Amino acid sequence: IHSLRDVQVTxxxxxxxxxTIILQCNYDLENQLxxxxxxxxxxxxxxxxxxxxxxxxxxFPMTGVHVDKERFFLKVPSTFQLNKSTSREVVLRNVQVExxxxxxxxxxxxxxxxxxxxxSAHIFVVDYPFEDPLLAIDKNLVDIGDYIKANCSSFPSxxxxxxxxxxxxMKVRHNxxxxxESYPEFASSxxxxxxxxxxxxxxxxxxxxxxxxxxxxxxxxxxKIYRGERKHTFEEGHAKPRxxxxxxxxxxxxxxxxxxxxxxxxxxxxxxxxxxx
Length: 277
Prior knowledge:
It is a single-pass membrane protein. The protein has one helix spanning 249-276; strands at residues 5-10, 14-16, 21-28, 34-41, 44-49, 57-59, 71-73, 80-82, 89-92, 101-109, 116-126, 134-137, 141-142, 147-153, 162-167, 170-171, 177-188, 191-203, 213-222, 226-236. It is elongated, with a radius of gyration of 36 Å. 10% of the residues lie in helices and 47% in strands. It is mainly beta. The chain is built from 1 helix and 20 strands. It has a 6-stranded mixed sheet with strand order 2-11-10-4-5-6, with no helix packed on it. The protein has a 5-stranded mixed sheet with strand order 13-20-19-15-16, with no helix packed on it.
């Protein structure tokens, strides 16, 4: 018995504002004819494909959802066919945060069975910061035992960015963080855009410097599609004296000669005392 099977939706889990994304719906008709493919967002239909009709595709208005606009006209007057979206793909252009949500593809085979199956997947659209984070430092020159205080703030984004600290490429542990908070900056399209602020306080030790310098980095991330970084280089205020190099053979001989002179000078009075007696 042949029947519709293996309906599977494939869409990006995360996308950026203004991206073009492709919603894919794969299925196996097992030699049956396709009757219709319907796409829904949160239960509301926005795209339909019917191979028996002209035009094959039909789009239903939905806020923030823009199915591809590249069209070509058919011979039938006042009709057109979407050029990019098909029975297996729907192209969404210039996506906005409103596009976030669950998308469902419903596939139906033709007569006599009219079998129907569906699958769903979720996408999250982010609006990332337009610039790297701001980094403020309380000093440039530091010595052993000093405290380094720094603050890092991300520019507004949706959702809030995450901030991490690195010292010489090594991630700073949470117990050194003074605070970590996100707060709304402004609202757009009924959504709040957030800035994130984080502070850190570190004590300078012998291990802080590499060749007299230390690099503190503030990194703002948003999922895996945005990474912004600011760095600051500290210099050691009073460099510690370096240990002297290994003595050369000449220095060793000189040292032995000095040692011998000292020994002779110490033995001479004893010899004189012995002669006098």
